[in-house]
Amino acid sequence: MEIYTCLFVFCCFAVMLCMDRLYASKNNILLKDHSTENRAKRTLSGGSYCRLRGCCPGRDDGCTFLYYARNATCYCDAFCSSGPPGSVDCCPDFWTVCRGHPITASSVLAGCFKGGRYYEEGATIQDNCNSCKCMSSKWNCLEETCLVQPNLIKQINDGNYGWKAKNYSQFWGMSLKEGFYYRLGTFPPSAALLDTRQVMENLITETDFPEFFVASYEWPGWIHDPLDQRNCAASWAFSTASVAADRIAIGSKGRFTDNLSPQNLISCDTRNQLGCRGGSINGAWSYLKKYGLVSHACYPLFWNQSDPAACGVSSVTDAAGKRQATRPCPNALEPSNRIYQCGSPYRISSQETDIMKEIKENGPVQAVMHVYRDFFLYKSGIYKHIRGTGGQLQHENHRRTHSVKIVGWGALPDANGQKQKFWIAANSWGSSWGENGYFRILRGENECDIEKLIIATKCHL
Ligand SMILES: *[C@@H]1O[C@H](CO)[C@@H](O)[C@H](O)[C@H]1NC(C)=O
Ligand SMILES: *[C@@H]1O[C@H](CO)[C@@H](O)[C@H](O)[C@H]1NC(C)=O
Ligand SMILES: *[C@@H]1O[C@H](CO)[C@@H](O)[C@H](O)[C@H]1NC(C)=O
C-alpha cells in the first residue's frame, strides 16, 4: 500500500515538473516519439545527439540538441529521464550515452544543421541572397529581400495572372536591391524630357492596324535581338543602341544592318552618365547624334575588362564634315570602324495608336518603364504587374526605371475568352530571359508606365 502511494506521489511530482518545464521553455517543440521521425532525425545527425552535445547533470534547460531542419529540440540532461518511464523529451541516444556513463559536466558541442548537414559554430552559409552565421547553435541570417522569391514564383504560377514566372539562376542569390542596382540602369526621365513636344496623330483608330505586328516579320534580318547587359546597369545604352541600329537598317533599306555598340556608349558617353551605374536616354541620343557609334562587332560588350571605363574609340569630324573613328576597332578582327549617327530624338504621344503607327512606319521605339520585383521572374505570357508583391518594400521604393525596345503588338484571348492586347518588347537580359529575350506586356493601359515616354529617331545615312 505504501509503495503504491509513493509511486503515485512520485508520478504527480514528475508530471508537475514536466508541466513546469513546458511552461518555462517557450518555443520548444518536444521531440515526438514517432519512429519515422526519429529515423529521419537519426539520418540528420548520424544518430549522435547527446554524444555530440554532451550529457548534463540535474536539470539544465540549455542542455538541448537543436535540429535546425526539423525545428525540434530534445534534451540530454538528467532531468529528461526523471519523469515516468519513456519520458518524451530525451534525445534518442540519451539512454545509451548518458545512462551508461556517470553524468559529467557538459562538454558542449555547439553547431547548426541545414539541409541535413552539420555546421560548426561560427560557420557561415549562403541561403539565396542572405548569408547565415551559426551562433550559439542557431542560424542568424540577414533578412534582405531576395530577387528570386520561390513563394512569389509559386504564387504567380499557381494563379491566373496571364503570365508565368521562372527561377532564373542568374538572379538567384541576388537581393532585390542588387537586382534594382545592377540589372536596370535608366535614370528616371527628366522634366525636360517629359516636356518634349509629342508627335500626335489622333486621326487613326485601332482598326486601321493589323491585329498582330512584329518588326522582324516586316523587316526580316534588320531587327536586332536583345543583348545581355548582365550586372551592368546600362539599359540606357542598350535600348538606345538597339533602337538606333534597327532604324538605321530600316532607314537605309538594308544597306547597313550592323548592330550598334552599347559598350561605345557605356565607355565613351561619360558626360553626366554613369556607365554601368546608370545613364539617361536623352544623353545617349545626344551622343549618338553628335559623335555616333561604331558597330557592336567593332566594339563588343565588356571589351576591356581591365578598364571597362576606358573609351576604346570615339569620332572626330574630317575635312568633308563627316565623322570618322579616332581609332581602329577595339576588336582587331573587325575591319570596319564606320561611325553611325542618327538625328534628334523625338517623342511619340502616349496614345496607343500613335505608338503603333510610329512602329509600323519607322520601326521599333524606345520605352521607359517601371520595373517591379515580379518582372524579373517573367518567363512567358502577357505581363501585368501583380499588385501587392512588393514584399517588405513599400510604395515608391519597390520599383525602378528601365528602358526597353518595343517591336510590335498583338492580341489574344485570355483564359476567360477576353481579348488581351499586348506590346512585344525586347529587354536586355539576354535570350535566356523571358520569351527569347523578349516579353509581352499589357497594351493600352499604360501598364508599368510603358506608354508614358516613347522615344524614336530618324537615322538616314
Ligand atoms: C520553429 O517553431 C517555432 C514554434 O512553433 C516557430 O515560431 C518558428 O518559426 C519555427 N522555425 C522554423 C525555422 O521553422
Ligand atoms: C533556383 O535556382 C537556383 C540556381 O539555379 C537553385 O540553386 C535553387 O535551388 C532554385 N530554387 C528553387 C526554389 O527552385
Ligand atoms: C584597356 O584599358 C587600359 C587602361 O586604360 C589600356 O591601357 C589598355 O590598352 C586597354 N586595352 C584594350 C585592349 O583596349
From TrEMBL:
<protein>
    <submittedName>
        <fullName>Tubulointerstitial nephritis antigen</fullName>
    </submittedName>
</protein>
<keyword id="KW-0325">Glycoprotein</keyword>
<dbReference type="InterPro" id="IPR000668">
    <property type="entry name" value="Peptidase_C1A_C"/>
</dbReference>
<feature type="signal peptide">
    <location>
        <begin position="1"/>
        <end position="24"/>
    </location>
</feature>
<keyword id="KW-0964">Secreted</keyword>
<dbReference type="GO" id="GO:0007155">
    <property type="term" value="P:cell adhesion"/>
</dbReference>
<dbReference type="InterPro" id="IPR013128">
    <property type="entry name" value="Peptidase_C1A"/>
</dbReference>
<keyword id="KW-0732">Signal</keyword>
<comment type="similarity">
    <text>Belongs to the peptidase C1 family.</text>
</comment>
<dbReference type="Pfam" id="PF00112">
    <property type="entry name" value="Peptidase_C1"/>
</dbReference>
<dbReference type="GO" id="GO:0005576">
    <property type="term" value="C:extracellular region"/>
</dbReference>
<dbReference type="GO" id="GO:0005604">
    <property type="term" value="C:basement membrane"/>
</dbReference>
<dbReference type="InterPro" id="IPR038765">
    <property type="entry name" value="Papain-like_cys_pep_sf"/>
</dbReference>
<dbReference type="GO" id="GO:0008234">
    <property type="term" value="F:cysteine-type peptidase activity"/>
</dbReference>
<dbReference type="InterPro" id="IPR025661">
    <property type="entry name" value="Pept_asp_AS"/>
</dbReference>
<dbReference type="GO" id="GO:0006508">
    <property type="term" value="P:proteolysis"/>
</dbReference>
<feature type="domain" description="SMB">
    <location>
        <begin position="51"/>
        <end position="104"/>
    </location>
</feature>
<dbReference type="InterPro" id="IPR001212">
    <property type="entry name" value="Somatomedin_B_dom"/>
</dbReference>
<keyword id="KW-1015">Disulfide bond</keyword>
